[in-house]
């Protein structure tokens, strides 16, 4: 496993952000908060940080419903809480209406009676009762700061349970207490080893059993500092613990198992705080499939959210999403304990050409950079490796030297190369004494370098001394059991440091006040209605998004006059508030070049509309725009994150290929360009089959203007769809040929 100081994770933000600094933090009602800065839609721009010190390290604990009667459900929990309190130096006060003592400790009949007799406030109340609501209401009269409710039967059970949970949450809000649960467990009160050093992993889970594999990393020498089992999150939620853990100097990484998010915005603000500080966040987020989403809802009563949006939002704020608990273990461990990379290059060092080639294929496919070592470096390596073996990268040693120092010299020479930041050695199985010597040489070399050394120990046994003692006994070598987990963790490690080095919080640039466009646009909104194409284009024009020259007409004669003003050739389209797919109804005519064609088109469009029962507000006579790349840019509302912005291939391709990328506002120009990079059809914008490159800068500008619209009209705009947005050749701009807008 790896060791370093937490200081290696300091965030090298751009000078502008460093100069601004983070907002100062102040303690208010048990919560560390930032100044009340809000964006144009009134949402906060900084994450509140709950002051949870007394939750994890209380001085005084009340156990409500404590028991020492054998066979009772609360007895084992009471016993565990007493042992935990002794470890953290807390005093335990049992509370039970019919007992005078519990495990030899004096017992109070109620929380109120306990509070009246104590000279000190109770920091934490643990509720071992079936219905925590009456106890929470009683706690409101005391100075208890935190409570934990283990009881189930709330939002995870359906509508009745959800209503019961809301009553509990309302009582908590009135009381001023911070509550963990309900439907949580004892994981916060586990035993954490105190003989381990180095940066620690802090763990957040909505399911206790799903955090168990990370907790057992302590048996491999990995330090764990905290475990927050959030349960149904009636009050305290994942975002609260994420914000709190990211402030702790001992935390090197935060590992999360998330079934659903209570508040998407709060989660992103917390992730932003972690990103500002350079603290890695690694998360398993269930709900990639419909089955997983349904199961998660029944377990914790949370919204899982549209997975594409969740995935994009996490990536946008640097949260590293993994799928398996084994990946969560390995990736969080590496990110918590590895030093900052000095180079992105990865070298594969193996004792078998086949192993090296296989690993190199997988690593390259995953996006790792395997630089070809220079001819001089290869010549140096061939001093100790036979000349017929490949050493350009991967480096095949043909069998690590055992009887002398050549093996260590090979490793040191590779690590001395300036293009190399990571050395990975896959050992597919034990082959003593060679594998023993190889493991020791790798450990010794890792101690002498500031570069990352990784080993994949492929033996299925895992009892070998080279693995259990040499590799796991090292604080500097990252040891894995599978190729895929090693590659994924190294990719996350390099990506994380690139991300945090360039990170520029989008919340720092979020608009605080409405633009002049806002007043013009809002006057066009019609609550609860869909705008006509003409009105939707006026909305775009208000935000500086280019639309074709066009006129709305209500007669054939007016259509001819409009065509003359717009300029032939023209496009004619029916316009109405309930028209979404005009082409399918034959309500679009293109390439009209004469007055007679315009008259005929007007009559045909109005006849079709009457036949189809479509109410028109007129017919649009539009400029015909030249050829370009058809894109779609839109706004939708996600139940977790609010307004989201989507960009993708447009026209008919939007439904055929579904090639889109999404972001949650606010975001800046780099993220807008990243969205385009995620599209499978990105090459179309660069020009294919002789087509000129498209005006990508103009497309990015439209995306950013649409984002501004989404933020400013958050309370008014339910949906916006610009399709197609014709992106013309470079330097010629982009034109919204059609638009649909739905008001809230």
Strands, count: 31
Structural class of the helix and strand makeup? alpha/beta
The largest sheet is: 7 strands, antiparallel
Count, helices: 26
Q: What is the 3D shape?
A: flat
First-to-last CA distance = 53 Å
Roughly how many Å is the radius of gyration? Answer: 31 Å
Low-confidence runs (pLDDT<50, min 5 residues)? 1-33, 298-304
Query: Into which percent range does the helicity of residues fall?
Result: 25-40%
| Nearest-integer average pLDDT | 90
Percentage of β-strand residues: 15-25%
Can you tell me about this structure?
- There is one protein chain.
- α8 packs parallel to α9 (264-277).
- It is built from 26 helices and 31 strands.
- The chain has 744 residues and is α/β, with parallel strands linked by helices.
- The relative contact order is 0.08.
- The model is unreliable at 1-33 and 298-304 (pLDDT under 50).
- The strands form seven sheets. Strands 21, 26, 27, 28, 29, 30 and 31 form a seven-stranded antiparallel beta sheet that branches.
- The longest helix is centred in the middle third of the chain and has 20 residues, at 483-502.
- A hairpin with a 6-residue loop joins β29 and β30.
- The chain is flat and about 95 Å long.
- 37% of the residues lie in helices and 20% in strands.
